[in-house]
Design a protein that fits this description.
This protein is an alpha+beta fold and 326 residues long. It has five helices and 22 strands.
Length: 326
Amino acid sequence: MSHTEHAEVDFESAQDLPALHELLEHVQMKNGWAKPTPSLYPSPKQVFVPAHWRYRDARAALHAAGRLVGTEWAERRNLIMANPIPGNDYATVRTLVGAYQMIKGHEAARSHRHTPNAMRIVLEGSPDMHTIVDGLKIPMLTGDILLTPNGSWHGHLSETDQEGYWVDFLDAPLVQHLGPMFFEVHPDTLENSNRVDARSPMRFAYADYRPRLLESSEIAPGVRSLELGPPQLVTFDRVVLHLAAGTQWHCPRSTANRIFTVVEGKGVTRVAGREFHWHAGDMFALPSWYDYSLESGSDALLLRVSDEPLLRMLDWYRIDGAARFS
């Protein structure tokens, strides 16, 4: 008898439910009538919690890491904004991770590619700082938003004395959960490139999208919104928001998981009885099924990243109060 086989079980011998449950264990089956936790429930569980991280803390920590962590042995010099729930050391919200990353002057972060889609917003950049995507050098200027779709080679290069700082977003938690994770380092360590492409479709330049945002129509009093694309990523979006000074905007809970980065300005987010007072460069997470409000203390520009495209594709996107089933 192989190690995967088991002896015959006499279920007729069970005289009560506890005895039947014990016999089920011998055939590696679980009963569906007395599970300790239900597999179906009337509304989404709020496992992940709202959280806020300050750029001034992340920047100081990364600057120190620049002395202590070399890119020759660390794949990326970054800080993971892990949601502060028990047992979690990676995901920021259920499907996405946000991380602060830093590169020193005249330093390179080696090229690699992987299954997860990735995107970054530059907090402190320079004309002589580039991300190299599939052989093309793309400028990393402050406020720029850059894409590296899954399977794209990408590395980072500074040809200036200035340190660079940015926020990365990846759908790696989703890929980890579903399983199809692949990762590969470029054979040349840093992909060779002599061509700069400032108009790459992988780059949404701050100088281009900011005026477009300010010219867009209001979606609520004092609030303007602009979704950046094409190209699009299947699993998460990128929406820039402008809140005029003094704006108060309430958003109902939905099934989407969201991460915000403050591009400029200051304000406060109120959620679940808490207040997050944010400034430029800060990041905050608003997981699924929390309603929240944003109040701007000055003109503010925010980048919102969410898994709404994926949920819409699967017909799982819902807003509280709307029909649960289409």
